[in-house]
Design goal:
This protein has one domain: Alpha/Beta hydrolase fold, catalytic domain (Rossmann fold). The chain is 42% helix and 15% strand. It has 15 helices and 8 strands. Strands 1-2-4-3-5-6-7-8 form an 8-stranded mixed β-sheet, sandwiched between helices. Strand 1 and strand 2 (64-70) form a beta hairpin. Helix 5 (126-140) crosses helix 6, helix 7 (184-191) packs antiparallel against helix 12 (239-251) and helix 8 (194-201) packs antiparallel against helix 12 (239-251).
Length: 336
Amino acid sequence: MVAAIGVRTALRERREQGEGQPGDRPRRMSWLGRRLDPFPTLEDQGLVLPPLPPAEVVTVPGRGEMFVRRTSGGEGVPVLLLHGWMASADLNWFLLYRELSRHHLVIAPDLRGHGRGIRSHCPFSLEDCADDAAALLRHLGVERALVVGYSMGGPVALLVWHRHPELVAGLVLEATALEFSGSPRERLVWRLMGPLALLIRWPTGRIALLRLTGGLEEVPSSLLRYRAWADGEFRRNDPTEVAEAGRALGRFDARPFAASIDVPTAVVVTTRDSLVPPDKQRALARVARAQVFEFDGDHSAVALQSEEFTRVTMDAIAAVSRHTAPASTDAQGSRP
């Protein structure tokens, strides 16, 4: 029976593919997916990899194996990059790596359940992500770092400061907030995270999800060549842990401790953000007594307005760096 089903499936796939070798054609998508996809006739499916710094899997004692992008960098304070929800370090930062590494040692891990990050039998928690990042810095011999957090990376950055303040030289918080469930509507959204795991597993669901979050609007043609790579990177996420991460964001609240932040801080406000309201971003800046950099863009600006967003991120990092004390570190980090 199993063999018969396998043969039937193979014959069906061959008929669908027609002549040519398997893999010559992109994976077929449902009718709904084709209607939602803004680039259904794109011939170049993105068989190009973006320029990326060296990667390694670092075994961090007490935490596990962490996938990390790392550059030797310049003379500036080391920078720890913490990516957003449903992304990976590469998806979030690949357009920033090159410019940032000219001035700083850059460390960019995949967070738990995302990309090639740690998989755990324990439920996802933002606190675990913060402890992972802190343990990674210690393992690499970095005494203090400027911590940059985008979206979900913002709460993780705040928790790194709260739980491991001796490691944090400064903070840059982008498109993020003190809390994400202040209104009944927001609380309802975060309670619906269970179905998200099903959406991520389904190609049409991923397209629908990106449509809902504004992630497929006005995609620059220069990014389309990376499309297949980006979709493959997105599919590295663990759907269950990503859904748990959404629920963790719904429970997060930095208001009890954020007023105590005592390191130089900048907040980049995405002024047309449909996911994290700009008013919430500005509230974070007020509480943290942060320098504000306003950016005319939506939540997807880190990718869709990449050149402009790279500039504002570099400006924010430079502003914080000017007020941080130099930290001693092995510029290459200690190799396990």
